[in-house]
Amino acid sequence: MSTSTDKLTQGNGPSHAKHRSGQYVLGYLLSLVLTAISFALALTHAMHVAPLMIVMTILAGFQIVVQLFFFMHVTEGDGPPYHSLALILGLIFTFAIALMSVWIMGFGSQVS
Amino acid sequence: MAVAHTTVAPHQHVADKPLEYQNPVQSVKILGFWIFLATDMLLFGCLFATYLVLRTHTDGGPTPHDIFDVRGFTIETFVLLTSSFTGGMSTLAMRNGNKRQLLTWLIVTIALGLTFVGFEASEFVSDALRGATMQRSAFLSAFFTLVGTHGTHVSIGIIWMIVTAIQVAKKGINPISARKVFVVNLYWHFLDVVWVFIFTVVYLSGVVM
């Protein structure tokens, strides 16, 4: 009983160095695998262009998640997670600007 | 043992936090940096939007398919992904209080960053020598602005990381230098994410179309 509580409460301590580096190695491997899938799909022309773009964008989205959770410690912080709010707002604005520009400009010109 | 934990827990609270969050002033600076990253995302969002709108406007000049070198951007991608990992390892070494490992990982990350910038610079030069200059077409203006802005960010990150490494070497690992190591690595991971979108939206899409 006491040993299990020890393990739980010491999660942030330096004593868990091995567990921590495992998290980084896993994040690195995941980012390599996601990249390799993107490259393989694109360079072998395995799919039609439109579905390929959607799949690659989703894979890139997973890469954001990998960097945020495995490398950037986004769940940590001091006090309320204000930084998560800023990030979510930033992501919404960013995708809104990029995708709506493409959508609107697509009416008037030859945007592919 | 279990009883001791429940009574000690409130006092352990500060010590349980990672070193860079133990001082409230440093915590606020980390929060501020997250907000900077959210705004920097917007900068890249605008440049991506511009690129997406203009990429077919080649004015009879070089197309994405003509100038993108698969081998070149594959190496750049691998180098930058690896540098994001080694940057993460430097944060880990900082949290473990291991100054030598921290400096080693920072130097490895700086070296990988320099390799990336070197490959990108040689890519830009070979493009320009083949007539694919920034002035040639709207596509090339958008391409060099987007990828060049990312490359500039990486170059600034390299200088910043060198300065941080010097500070760690001189003053050791304390709450202030810990915060600086953490923040410079946040920046570095962010640039890795931006590069993921660059190779997706610019390079791989360009090769496919």
Automatic annotation (TrEMBL), chain A:
Membrane topology: Multi-pass membrane protein
Pfam (any one): COX4_pro
UniProt-annotated location(s): Cell membrane
InterPro entries: Cyt_c_oxidase_su4_prok, Cytochrome_c_oxidase_bac_sub4
GO biological process per UniProt: aerobic electron transport chain; electron transport coupled proton transport
GO molecular function annotation: cytochrome bo3 ubiquinol oxidase activity; proton transmembrane transporter activity
Residues that span the membrane, as ranges: 25-43, 49-72, 84-106
Assigned keywords, A-Z: Cell membrane, Membrane, Transmembrane, Transmembrane helix
GO cellular component, one term: plasma membrane
Family: Belongs to the cytochrome c oxidase bacterial subunit 4 family.
Protein name per UniProt: Cytochrome C oxidase subunit IV
Lineage of producing organism: Bacteria, Bacillati, Bacillota, Bacilli, Bacillales
Automatic annotation (TrEMBL), chain B:
Family matches, as InterPro entries: Cyt_c/ubiquinol_Oxase_su3, Cyt_c_oxidase-like_su3, Cyt_c_oxidase_su3-like_sf, Cyt_c_oxidase_su3_a-hlx, Ubiquinol_oxase_su3_dom
Protein origin, superkingdom: Bacteria
Entry membrane topology: Multi-pass membrane protein
GO cellular component terms attached to this protein's record: plasma membrane
Localization in the cell: Cell membrane
GO biological process entries: aerobic electron transport chain
PANTHER family, per the entry: CYTOCHROME BO(3) UBIQUINOL OXIDASE SUBUNIT 3 (PTHR11403:SF2), CYTOCHROME C OXIDASE SUBUNIT III (PTHR11403)
Heme-copper oxidase subunit III family profile domain mapped to chain residues: 1-207
Single GO MF annotation: cytochrome-c oxidase activity
Residue intervals passing through the bilayer: 31-53, 73-93, 102-119, 139-166, 186-206
UniProt keyword Lipid biosynthesis present: no
Lineage: Bacteria, Bacillati, Bacillota, Bacilli, Bacillales
The protein's name in its UniProt record: Cytochrome o ubiquinol oxidase subunit III
Family: Belongs to the cytochrome c oxidase subunit 3 family.
One matching Pfam family: COX3
Organism, scientific name: Alicyclobacillus ferrooxydans
Entry keyword set: Cell membrane, Membrane, Oxidoreductase, Transmembrane, Transmembrane helix
